[in-house]
Structure formats: C-alpha cells, structure tokens
Amino acid sequence: MKKDVGLIPIEIIENKIYLIRGIKVMLDSDLARLYQVETKALNRAVKRNEDRFPVDFMFQLTAEETKNLRFQIGTSSSKYGGRRYLPFVFTEQGVAMLASVLKSKRAIHMSIAIVRAFIKLRELLSTHKGILVEMEKLRRTQKEHGQHIVSILNVISQLLNPPPDKKSKEPMGFRDRSKDKK
Question: Strand, coil or helix: what is 85?
Fold first, then answer.
C-alpha cells in the first residue's frame, strides 16, 4: 500500500463537509482546492460528463442556500472578488465520481481521502445517535414536568388568592340563631 504523500489531514477535509438539504456535501471550490485545480476547470470537466453526475451526486445551490452558507463559512460576495454564480455541491458519491472525471493521481488519492472523511463522519454520527435519542427523551420529560409545574403554580395561586364570593356576604361558620329572634 502506497503512502499518501502531500495529502491534507482528514480533519481539514471534515471541516469542508456541510449539511445542505439534509445531505452531507462539499463545495466545488473546496474540492477544486483539494484537487489543486481551478474551480472552473473542475466544473467544466463535470459538464463534459454530465451523465455521470445525477442529482443525487451533485446539485447547484439556490441563492438562499448560498447566502446562508456564506454567512456560515465567511466567504466573500461577488462585489469583493468572490463567485459570480451559484456553486455546485457534491455528495460522497459525486466526490468518488470526480476522480474518474479528473483522471489525475492527485484526484484519485484526494477522492479516497475525502470518501474516508465522509465515512468517518457517518460512523461518528451513528455512535452518537443513541445519545441524541436519550437527549430527546429528556427534553420531552422536561417539557411534561414544566407543564405540571405550571399547573401546580396555578392551583397554589388560586388557593392563596381565592376569588370573592358575590352570592353571600354572611360570615362562614355556626352562629347562634336565638339572638336573631329578639
């Protein structure tokens, strides 16, 4: 097995994976940097091989998704030398397909590293899924307890501040009626 020389650490690749539309994806510009090609060259190669990239391998972001992503990662706007078109994103399968389209040793090795990063993230998420389930149970229990506490506070408030009884103004208790007849 050959050693991957000059490749980027997996942690850096993991930081380039975003969750968009509920899917883990990578931006075309990030992939171009990793593959050491220009973004437009990467996108041209993809367009020449469109049949290899169905929508579950690659899709273009909407303007709103691009805006949200720019806020999240701090990329520049088109006014200051940034992109002038909506970026494409690639799923794990799209990244694997890029290696066959770009056909360089670097692309092959980077695709392997990127797929490994996707796999590592998937494993990490699956191990923490149990924790998420338990946290959801706690959240539901806490919400129920909160509702019970509000009910208890309402009852206590009613006991401490009973509404005035408008029907009778006579004092409560026993009284000697023999004194009333005189």
Answer: coil
